[in-house]
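Records of this kind hold a single protein each, on a pair of labelled lines. Below, a sample record shows both lines together.
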Amino acid sequence: MSLSFRRASLASLGLVFGLSALSLSPLMAQETKPAQDATSPAAAPVDPNAVVATVNGEKLTEADLQLAEGELSQQFAQMPPEQRRAAALSAAIEIRVMAKKAVDSGLDKDADFQRRMAFLQARALHGEVVEKEVVDKVTDAEVRARYDQEIANTPPVNEIHARHILVKTKEEAEAIIKQLDGGADFQKLANDHTSDPSGKTSGGDLGWFGPGQMVPEFDKAAFALDVGKYSKEPVQSQFGWHVIKVEDKRAKQPPAFDDVKDQAKQAVIRDKYFAMVKELRAAAKVEIPDEKLKKDIDTLEAGK
């Protein structure tokens, strides 16, 4: 079961998790790192300043290598773990020698390159602010409070345990209803007549489900029935004609905190991020000469 948080501008939130990939990659690496075997010795601490190679007299350190591994992790995903360190070092050396050639050729002075570098630096700084001033400052208490708030704001709903018999025609469904009116057993009829493959051995059992999980016609008819009752008229959907029986109803239980705490944390991060952006945008002097573009920006910002 998942907790459904209200969705503010996910496109804008993409700035946090898309443009700031540099800042979040260490976090993701930490979350997905496999647990160390208790029987194996702990890895020796690595000196980030230890030199692993020199390229044209320029040092490449452990910190540089770890950065390369993190930034190029997708390229190394299919590679055996024991080869990734060597591959990262090879890539780092390749980048350095090609970068030197670019500088020697004067490409670093190119106006388009400098614009890209300025943007990349701003993007990296954006990521640093998100990580240091937003992500790292989220507390367990804030995450729990957000979960409690969402649970309190979620209207209580019922879920039902139902069975159905699915047939191709209305006439077939009406004939089954007549048999039920005469005292026939619903589960036996389902096993004998339903065209739903999963229902042929389970008496048409659909298990528990909540509002909106079934097609609208089925959903409306099923939730209108009382416990122990079956539909007196065939219910048509895109799949055919249904005869529905409700076995039980219960209040839908909210998800446990541990099951959705990551979602709750992302919601806290999102809110803190937007609050910071709103404050900084209000204090910034932003001028957009193009009136149409300005109007489009205002519309976009109003939807966040």
